[in-house]
Amino acid sequence: MDFVEDLQNEREVVVGKANQLGISWTGVAYGGVWLPLFHDNVNTLMLSHKEQGGSWELIRKAKYILDRLPHFLQREYSKDARSEIEFSTNDSRVLALPSVPKAGAGFNASFVFRDELDLHPYAEENFAFISPTIDAGSAQLVDVSTRNPDIAREASHFMQRYLKAKSGEIPAKAIFLGWRMRPTRAEGMTQDEWFNERVLKRYPPWEIDAHYPETEAEFLAEARKTRFFDGLGIDYIRSDCYEPMDTDYDGIVKIWERPVEGRRYTSFLDPSDGSDPHAAGWLDTVTNRLVCISHGKVKAEKCAEIFDKYNRVYNAFNEFELTGAAGLKVGQYLDDLGTPNRRVSKVSRDRKNKYGWWTTEKLKALMLASVEEAVRNKRLRIHYSEIPNELGYMMRKEGGDPKVPRGKHDDLIMMLGGLLQIKREVQYGNYEPIAPGKCVGF
Questions:
Q1: CA end-to-end distance (rounded Å), the chain
Q2: Which CATH topology does 2-223 take?
Q3: How many CB atoms lie within 10 A of CB 375?
Q4: Sign for the pseudo-dihedral over CA of 133, 135, 137, 140
Q5: Tens digits of per-residue pLDDT, 158-207?
Q6: Residue range 33-75, pLDDT digits in tens
Q7: How far apart are CA 250 and CA 57, in angstroms?
């Protein structure tokens, strides 16, 4: 089998594969049995996405093979545990760990096997701790995985390693193994009969792409899902994107049009505290043009400062998302700043106004539906190129809720949804809120 030859001849191997080909068993048999059993001083490190059903399962496979070898090939264990095997007569050991950021740090591995790498939650962080072992000596690194359709290709550590190996950017060999590599799937059925009966009729297209690719092109393609937003609507927005006339806060704030006398504006803020981007937008309620945007990673205090300043510039009726720690901080800062024209979400028993809304699942669905309708009917004028990009990322699996892949953000989308909701509540005159606001549709 070519894969076994590659294990013997290549220092780094990245394997993209279909499900149930026995590749994990092969990797364990090579690195978790053959190397440590028949060679002295071998340190094998096997990493999986979790402990129970992951790393423990890799050790179980190794022990299953070892316990069924002829007696004259077996060695005594000096250590036999769920996560580790150590042989008493040749100082070789096998260690299996879940993929946490520092897994394997300080372990002088001679063979590293990362199984189902695209599922590892800390794949890239962990790689920083194990790569010195690979770079410093003659250790082997074998990465094996099917696609995780919930991670965008450019955000996937595994897929980026595969693509770089394929292009020659890193000293590794990329190998693809499609579902037809397993000659028999079900007794009495041909491969095509099995695929048509057991796969096509059972799984949606996006799941087939991820778990049962036949060709490398299918493996490399993004999983087929239903794009949530209309493609022509996204293209319409993209065709109207251009650079802002002015910027502020080192480019965080982008301005396409200054306030126009007699126009009415509304604004919405999806806040952050620096760990992910915030998104704030100021919308001309007559022309439906997004005239100003603030977008980027800033702390909650700076986020509130920007929102307060430009609400005053545009005299905008405004609202922000209260959900989460960042929202609570921003709400307090806006109170301290005395931000004007705020939408009242609630009046307390002592007749004090309450501000900010909580994005419940029902409200989020309403916000997304309003953006979908506006994009499909080309009702918005948007000049910021990141918005059509984000709209294009949002997908909906069959029977599921719309969401963006892991590694992507939906802050600009939620900002648009908030704007379209509170736009319906804009009060004329001096914008003095005198009663609680209400999201249309509730």
A1: 62
A2: Rossmann fold (3.40.50)
A3: 25
A4: positive
A5: 999 999 999 999 999 999 999 998 888 888 889 998 999 988 888 877 78
A6: 999 999 999 999 999 887 666 688 999 999 999 999 999 998 9
A7: 51
Among 50, 121, 101, which residue's Cα sits nearest to residue 407? 121
By the 8 A CB rule, do 93 and 87 touch?
yes
Question: Could you tell me the pTM of the whole model?
Answer: 0.62
Nearest to 425 by CA among 369, 356, 360, 344: 344
What is the 8-class DSSP label of residue 404? P
Task: Provide the CA 104 distance to its chain's centre, in angstroms.
Answer: 24
In 73-139, DSSP assigns E strands to: 77-80, 84-87, 93-98, 111-115
Domain 231-423 classification at class level: alpha beta
What residues are paired with 294 via a beta bridge? 253, 280
Asked whether this chain's domains 2-223 and 231-423 adopt the same fold, the reply is no
Cα of 375 vs its chain's centroid, Å: 24
Residue 224: pLDDT band (50, 70, 90) is low
Of the candidates 20, 27, 61, 64, the one whose C-alpha atom is nearest the C-alpha of residue 184 is: 20
The span from the CA of 323 to the CA of 116, in Å, is 34
Spans of all domains in the chain? 2-223, 231-423
CA distance linking residue 114 with residue 143, whole number of Å: 5
Both tokens of residue 192? Answer: 């095509």
Greater pLDDT, 408 or 21:
21
| Alpha helix positions (H), 340-385 | 361-376
3-state secondary structure of 217: helix
